[in-house]
Write a structure and sequence with these properties.
The protein is α/β, with parallel strands linked by helices and 193 residues long. Helix content is 49%, strand content 16%. It is built from 7 helices and 7 strands, in the order βαβαββαβαβααβα. A 7-stranded parallel sheet has the order 4-3-2-1-5-6-7, with helices on both faces. Strand 5, helix 4 and strand 6 form a beta-alpha-beta unit. The chain is globular and about 45 Å long. It starts with a strand and ends with a helix. The mean pLDDT is 95.
Length: 193
């Protein structure tokens, strides 16, 4: 993994545990030499995560639509900042640059990005790992909803399995590495046929 796309809130949330989790994940990625691709903002968990990675010498690439620059100013200290024309362009560039996707706690934008990337994986548009860092059980209701969707027959179990859910960032990163290694083995096996 060279870069991971991190989806997270443009606000800090009410519990400081969310802020600390964003910083811990950013530091761990920087120490592993894994770059971050994110929404480019300087505020909320987004800005704090970028600051923490940069402070450890990490590579951080932001992608922000021009229309958001007034509400969520682009981070001035990033390794690279792409200012794009639309949200669709933002998502496409972030997807292209990343080797996997992690959602930290966030609001509607974070959920939108997470569900879109899960849908793209379900449709076979990418085979990159997708996960959530389940800080203080933030994503527990979402996990229950997805399990309910399986039980109700609207989501296939193998598609539910696309989402990796872990509370520990180190365990989440190990599971991402396992996902990538398994995909590479399947790919090599097919190319040998």
């Amino acid at each position: 993994m060279k870069r991971l796309c991190i989806y997270c809130g443009s606000s800090l949330g009410r519990d400081p545990v969310y802020l600390e989790a964003a910083r811990v994940l950013a530091r761990r990625l920087a120490h592993r030499g894994i770059g971050i691709v994110y929404g480019g903002s300087s505020v909320g968990l987004m800005g704090a995560m970028a600051d923490a990675a940069l402070a450890e010498g990490g590579e951080v690439t932001g992608v922000i639509p021009d229309s958001l620059m007034d509400r969520e100013p682009g981070h001035p200290g990033l390794t690279e900042l792409h200012v794009v024309a639309s949200m669709h362009q933002r998502k496409a560039i972030m997807t292209e640059l990343a080797d996997g996707f992690i959602a930290l706690p966030g609001g509607l934008g974070t959920l939108d990005e997470l569900f879109e990337i899960l849908t793209w994986a379900q449709l076979g548009l990418h085979c990159k790992p997708c996960g959530v860092l389940n800080v203080k059980h933030y994503y527990a209701p979402l996990v229950r909803l997805l399990d309910h969707a399986v039980e109700a027959g609207f989501v296939r179990p193998q598609h539910r399995g696309i989402l990796i859910v872990e509370a520990d960032p180190e365990v989440l990163l190990v599971r991402f590495e396992e996902h990538i290694a398994a995909f590479e083995l399947r790919r090599i096996g097919r190319s040998d046929l």
